[in-house]
């Protein structure tokens, strides 16, 4: 998961940057982006000190109490690999931003293309591209490696895995000796997937709605939520909360 923190004391600016970041997340599902916003540097540093680690920081500079350069200095002491990008109305701090090894400096007002371009360039250096795959041995002797971000859900029936993809393709495995739990353990530990019944695991990236009885996926497919796995609904709501997404 790619964690992005936004910090700006101007509420309108904060919401604007947040909306742009949400749009960036929507076109990059492979990055599994989570976004949190902070209206002052003090709250952001409290989160960082509480062991919240962000990969990317989008920081205003001219903020009361603790300015963006000071915030960046504290972050840099804790994390030498974090990406610091300053979004500010003043060009006066460009040189000073280098003291905290900032990787970007955008002057307000800016449009989404400016922000997207710098995010594309800097995130590439994090090696954050999602190379995780579900590997399935098929009955014809072949092997399919399906990117996690392209999986809608996985079904287990008659000791076989069936993987349903975003593009509508379906992949079936050979007979499996291992249990469903063993076969799909990497999916659960990834953080994007949740088990909703004894035979189904869904990718929360592609869930469109949840009720007390079912999960609805992006393609319209509705899967029953088992009573035994009723906590899956809370897991999904927590997943949305972590990513700054409003509940469906």
Descriptive notes:
Pfam families: Response_reg. One of its GO terms (molecular function) is DNA binding. This is Stage 0 sporulation protein A homolog. Keywords: DNA-binding, Phosphoprotein. β11 and β12 form a beta hairpin. Helix content is 30%, strand content 29%. α2 packs parallel to α3. By secondary structure, it is of the alpha/beta class.
Q: What is the straight-line distance between the termini?
A: 21 Å
How much strand? 25-35%
Mean pLDDT over the full residue set: 88
Structural class: alpha/beta
Radius of gyration equals 21 Å
Q: Helix share of residues? A: 25-40%
Individual helix count: 8
CATH homologous superfamily caption of the largest domain: Response regulator
Domains counted in the coordinates: how many?
A: 2
CATH topology of the largest domain: Rossmann fold
CATH architectural name of the largest domain: 3-Layer(aba) Sandwich
| Strand elements, count | 15
The geometry reads as elongated
Outline the biggest β-sheet. 5 strands, parallel
CATH class of the largest domain: Alpha Beta
Strand order of the largest sheet: 2-1-3-4-5
Ranges where pLDDT stays below 50 over 5 or more residues in a row are none
Order of helices and strands: EHEHEHEHEHEEEEEHHEEEEEH
Protein name: Stage 0 sporulation protein A homolog
Pfam families: Response_reg (PF00072)
GO molecular function: DNA binding
Domain Response regulatory: 3-123
